[in-house]
Amino acid sequence: MWIAILVGLLAATIAVVLLTRRGRGEVPAASSRQIRGDAASPADDSTGSPYATEATDNVAGECLKIAFGVARIDYQIMGEHAEVLAKVAQSLEASVHERDYFPRRPMLLPKLLQAINDSDSTRTELVRLILEDPTLAGTVLQRANSAFYRVSPAPVENLDRAVFLLGTDGLRGLMAAAILQPVFRVPRGYFEAFADCAWEQAERTANAAETHARQSRDADPFVTQLLGMLTMLANIVLFRLTMDKYREHPNVLPRAEVFIAAIQEHRARMASLIAVTWQLSDPSMVALRERERRVSPARMSPVGRCVYYGELCGSLALLSAHDVYSKEGAQAILKEQGLTDAEVLALWQAGTAIERH
Predict the structure, then answer these.
(1) Sign of CA dihedral 171, 172, 177, 180
(2) What's the confidence (pLDDT) of residue 145?
(3) Of 195, 277, 181, 266, which is closest to residue 229 (Cα–Cα)?
């Protein structure tokens, strides 16, 4: 139940922030054409680096090896395991209507984000809203006492002072992480390292995407941060969906390669399905559809480019932390995909600022 509520909070967070950038107009419900992505056409990647190379594919594969604790991911999938994988593919669009994956949106976070985005709101109003969620209040105090925000030896024990220290950007970024982290938990029993690894990758991705947006100044940093996390949330949804399909085969033990194949084949699609269901803004949808179409980063929209580089850097930072890639090797891949030396340095610092879980 708590997982469902927390996923809803994330949905509310993203929806309110992005909708405020579209004005007060009504957002049309997604059509079946939108959900299927029929409008997408093959991308013209003749300009700039391709969406994927052998090096970037290896990066993605190594991250999945760590997440599932396996040495190989190229096993042939046969028999009932192949049936499970086929059922996952058949259930993608139906899964968006399952409340276990996409619950209704609670009211606290939209109210809180509206207050943060409203220049007329007072700190007192923000504190009052934050106090409605004791967990969030505790997280705000914890963040205010971190080395980055704390400005004196005395601990910050007053929520009003904590809100002042964090400021608008600090609060928005904090909520994204505080709301989403519990959603990355999965039931114990199989592949118990997966959730922690996915969350670590999500944090690194979000940090790098936000940094690239601030550096380029052509995309909203908070939007790119949330979309970076959403791309990793797709992995969690696919994990849960695959596990559900295995329950239809009670005598078959789940195998890592089936989960890995489901993520490799459907994560971009699942992220778009989540975004359509949550009625995200047009720029956000464009960014996620560019991932589906595998558009060259040089031809991506500003938001899409930030999320693309954020995910690549987040993945490389994860592998570097796990001693799979050297710093020099990781940064070379980022440069090969079109980033300048200054951009690589800024993104790398953001992606590696997260502690290993």
Answers:
(1) positive
(2) 87
(3) 181
The backbone region for 23, taken as left when phi is positive above 0, alpha when psi lies in -120 to 50, beta otherwise, is left
Q: How far apart are CA 110 and CA 98, in angstroms?
A: 22
Its sign, for the CA torsion 106, 144, 229, 188, is negative
What the block records as the tokens of 245 is 């399909």
| HSE value, Cβ hemisphere, 13 Å, CA-based, for 126 | 24
User: What was the pLDDT predicted at 357?
Assistant: 61
Supply the pTM of this predicted model: 0.77
What parts of the chain have a pLDDT lower than 50?
A: 1-7, 9-10, 12-45, 103-106
DSSP H helices in the chain: 2-19, 32-36, 54-68, 79-95, 108-117, 123-130, 134-144, 159-180, 193-216, 221-246, 256-277, 282-293, 302-321, 327-336, 341-351
**Selection from 264, 332, 306 nearest residue 57 by Cα:** 264
How crowded is the C-beta side of 70, counted as CA atoms within 13 Å?
17
pLDDT of 9 reads 45
Location of structure tokens 């007072």 = 122
Q: Please, which residues have CB within 8 angstroms of residue 306's CB and are 6 or more apart in sequence?
A: 209, 210, 212, 213, 216, 219, 224
Q: What angle do CA 314, 317, 321 make, to 5 degrees?
A: 140
20-77: pLDDT as tens digits:
444 333 333 333 333 333 333 444 445 578 999 999 999 999 999 999 999 999 889 9
CA 334 to chain centre: 19
Nearest to 146 by CA among 105, 175, 174: 174
Please identify which residue in the block is written with the tokens 């590696």. 352
**CATH class of the domain at 2-23+32-351:** mainly alpha
d(CA 178, CA 180): 6
Give residue limits of the domains in the chain: 2-23+32-351
CA-wise closest residue to 139 among 108, 169, 168, 177: 177
Cα separation of 287 and 302, whole Å?
A: 8
Whole-angstrom distance, CA of residue 299 vs CA of residue 37: 19
* Max Cα-Cα span within the chain: 62
For 82, residues 6+ apart whose C-beta sits below 8 A from its C-beta are: none
